[in-house]
């Protein structure tokens, strides 16, 4: 991939001077059109060889365009808040909102490549990382992002010369550090690993553009033109018509399903409940204080029909926990900062650190439940969500996050009983809204959505636990026990 | 302060059962009114003696009200992202938005009290912390927040008994840890220090409420009633009419001021500029890589008339920096998440970690400049802002953040020249908007605001640097040099 970036490309000063004004004008106009429409974010990844002009190009872009709408991120060593979460967390954190340009120096490519070059990881680790990157970039593109990936290249000879030149001038000597020479020693390995990585991640929707970095006029003009073309093309794209999905999930022909075959008659009785409650709360508390939990964390998802008892179950858990350990995240309408990011962003931001717990009161599954049923999401959107969710949860599990997911299931009659009770008791009637009655009329559609969700997202690593909840006490104990057992199982992995 | 919480308060089970429904109903109604109006946040601080029912009360509040609109925060050891910023950063981070209730377990009181009890700090350190807390809470209240501070108390005898009782029951044994007994040894010291702290921070706008924690019925009912009363009173408060300030700053009678006495004729010339630029950029780069900078950070504020050259100056700085080291924060209209917090929140969130740099392109000074001139802020708001800003910057400086603040000053004629030029050059005319012309017509009002700003906020620790910028090259060098010198000075402190 690098041969064509070693041919000694260059542009004369005159040609550069002649062409720059139109380029700047074009970039600015495109940037403003992007800003005003605020339809999608631009993610510009800047990678390549040291000394090939990465930094200078980013500086120039900031000069050519309006820097107030450009976010430049450099990624150094991760902080502990970052280290204690899945590796992609810090990049989710840095994603630009719709309408803005994010320039990323170093990116999700840096660590996998560097680790492989230094021999910290195996070839199969690199392949796994590449797989993850492809999924991630695919998600960004599907969410509308324009992903532009620039690789600034220098031949070995050119890089040596470049570092020497900088060093020999007292005014630019500071630009060259020992680390630069350190890294230069690994040139061949670095070239090989990055060539492979670029090749494997150069997809149709997010191809790599390799730029020879030797001649500043050539590289600036080329980088600017690539960005302008990409922006222009993307801005001219008509909004995607929702593509109908050819094959949708289909309810079973005998209409038996995972919900209507649950045993809703299970019941505990007050006395047993209170005993069990103390036992499991105590056990949970001790498990979280166990040394082994210090390198793990817990994500628990609570979904269920309205009035199924999500809140009550959550409170039975938090009652057993130190407030410093947990966060409860009630999922409601996204804020404008959240709406400007890919849809999973608002769940990523709340992931727990090591030793911590996040309880999601409703979750990312809204995408395939309410958003599907109410048609807030297109078929294409919720269909791809299954895969996006599985990828997401896989990352959690791979990073020692215990994932438990509860569907609290009640029967239609039981729901009616609870709605009526809520209407009657004064301090409960805030819990019942016209929305609840409306959702109830769509009982069947929700049931289908739940069954599809379970079919697609109940995986070995993060299975769904369907909890018959007509008896709230029974349900609460099942929830507590399931969490305890999941944590214990993680200790034995 | 604690005597009245050691008299053996108690409420009978019957009375409790009778009174709770009305209390719940009241709390819920108030919570919903709060949510719908979204006029102010509620900050509930829960402190006190271990075993006095802090956690249980918070759990109960979550049961009595709608927990989806309550944010519960426990503060354990700070993360490195928190440790590397001023101590208050983590609390700013946790402030609830308008319309919500934030329940804080542990708070800005914990560390000062614990440090003093353990003898890590002196009495005068504690006094300084208390001063800081009072300023902070005053700011919250002035910003509209309802601050409710509950202290759960137990006498020494009662605490010992409580810990023993919990321990003797196998089902609750897990609730008592070694740390609890450890801390019990310090009971007397803890009592003394917290009594002093409570007394000093019990202000009219945010008084402490001490609750005897022995009898659960008493403490629940009392805590609930306090919260309900506070909510009800605050919700009933009419919106504050802007109080006219009796004494506003006044322009000097001879109309000489810090701006019109600057020497705008200073000029560098291209050659000197280019030499100086490389020198100072190199010096800055080395200073940031100096080991001593690893325990410091830099905040640079750029303000100035439209077209004074803020962006250009900022780019001359970033050109010298590694992208991993700095963030540029362009200050524009706040997002809805930002609008729901006290006004300084959106600046706190971007403070640099150790070894890092944040460049603010416009800043918190907007409060006393554009918001004053355009009357977006009331007189009372911008007048109090001087003090709030000084408190803020004092915290930065005290925590080894080097603060530099630039006012890039140009003359009215020079601005006109630049506006015209911007209109003529195609890739510059995005930089000129009708707003710029409008602001220009208010030149005098802005000048007054700038002079007042300098008078009130140019402090020994974070002075303003007024930079005559008719010659952009001269200005850029002054900016670079000032930053270098400020960092060097910090090394000698």
List keywords for this structure.
2 domains, 5-stranded parallel β-sheet, Rossmann fold, 10 strands, alpha/beta, homodimer, 493 residues
What can you tell me about this protein's structure?
The mean pLDDT of chain A is 92. Chain A has helices at residues 13-37, 54-64, 80-83, 89-94, 110-117, 123-142, 156-168, 178-184, 187-201, 216-236, 270-289, 310-318, 336-339, 345-348, 370-373, 379-398, 412-424, 434-441, 443-457, 472-491, and strands spanning 42-48, 70-74, 101-105, 146-153, 208-212, 297-304, 326-330, 357-361, 401-409, 464-468. The radius of gyration of chain A is 27 Å and the shape is elongated. Chain A contains 20 helices and 10 strands. In chain A, helix 1 (13-37) packs parallel to helix 10. Chain A folds into 2 domains: 3-236, P-loop containing nucleotide triphosphate hydrolases (Rossmann fold, 3-Layer(aba) Sandwich), CATH 3.40.50; 270-491, 3-Layer(aba) Sandwich (Rossmann fold). Chain A is an alpha/beta fold and 493 residues long. A 5-stranded parallel beta sheet of chain A has the order 2-3-1-4-5, sandwiched between helices. The interface between A and B is large, with 62 and 62 residues.
């Amino acid at each position: 991939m690098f041969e064509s970036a070693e041919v000694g490309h260059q542009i004369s000063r005159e040609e550069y001077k002649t062409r720059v004004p139109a380029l700047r004008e074009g970039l600015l106009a495109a940037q403003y059109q992007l800003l005003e429409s605020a339809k999608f974010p631009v993610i510009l990844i800047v990678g390549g060889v040291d000394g090939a002009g990465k930094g200078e190009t980013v500086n120039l872009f900031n000069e050519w365009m309006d820097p107030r709408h450009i976010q430049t991120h450099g990624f150094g060593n991760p902080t502990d808040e970052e280290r204690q979460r899945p590796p992609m967390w810090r990049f989710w954190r840095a994603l630009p909102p719709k309408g803005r340009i994010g320039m990323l120096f170093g990116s999700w490519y840096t660590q996998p490549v560097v680790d492989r070059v230094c021999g910290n990881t195996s070839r199969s680790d690199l392949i796994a990382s590449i797989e993850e990157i492809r999924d991630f970039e695919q998600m960004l593109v599907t969410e509308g992002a324009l992903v532009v990936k620039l690789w600034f290249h220098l031949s070995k000879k050119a890089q040596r010369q470049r570092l020497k030149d900088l060093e020999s001038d007292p005014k630019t000597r500071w630009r060259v550090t020992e680390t630069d020479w350190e890294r230069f020693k690994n040139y061949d390995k670095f070239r090989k690993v990055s060539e492979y990585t670029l090749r494997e991640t150069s997809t149709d929707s997010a191809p790599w553009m390799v730029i020879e970095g030797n001649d500043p006029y050539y590289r600036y003009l080329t980088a600017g033109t690539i960005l302008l073309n990409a922006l222009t093309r993307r801005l001219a794209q008509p909004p995607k018509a929702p593509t109908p999905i050819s094959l949708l999930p289909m309810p079973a022909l005998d209409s038996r399903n995972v919900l209507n075959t649950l045993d809703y008659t299970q019941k505990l009785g007050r006395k047993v409940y209170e005993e069990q409650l103390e036992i499991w709360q105590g056990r949970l508390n001790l498990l979280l204080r166990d040394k082994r939990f210090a390198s793990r964390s817990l994500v628990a998802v609570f979904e269920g029909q309205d009035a199924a008892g999500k809140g009550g179950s959550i409170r039975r858990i938090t009652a057993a926990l130190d407030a410093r350990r947990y966060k409860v995240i009630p999922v409601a309408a996204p804020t404008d900062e959240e709406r400007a990011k890919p849809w999973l962003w608002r769940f990523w931001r709340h992931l727990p650190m090591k030793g911590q717990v996040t309880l999601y009161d409703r979750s990312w599954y809204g995408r395939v439940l309410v958003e599907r049923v109410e048609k807030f999401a297109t078929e294409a959107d919720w269909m791809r969500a299954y895969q996006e969710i599985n990828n997401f949860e896989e990352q959690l599990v791979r990073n020692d996050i215990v994932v438990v997911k509860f569907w609290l299931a009640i029967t239609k009659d039981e729901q009616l009983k609870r709605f009526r009770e809520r209407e009657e008791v004064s301090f409960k009637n805030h819990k019942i809204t016209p929305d609840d009655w409306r959702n109830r009329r769509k009982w069947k559609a929700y049931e289908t959505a739940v069954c599809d969700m379970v079919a697609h997202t109940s995986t070995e690593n993060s299975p769904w636990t369907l909890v018959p909840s007509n008896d709230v006490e029974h349900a609460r104990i099942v929830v507590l026990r399931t969490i305890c057992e999941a944590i214990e199982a993680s200790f034995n992995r």
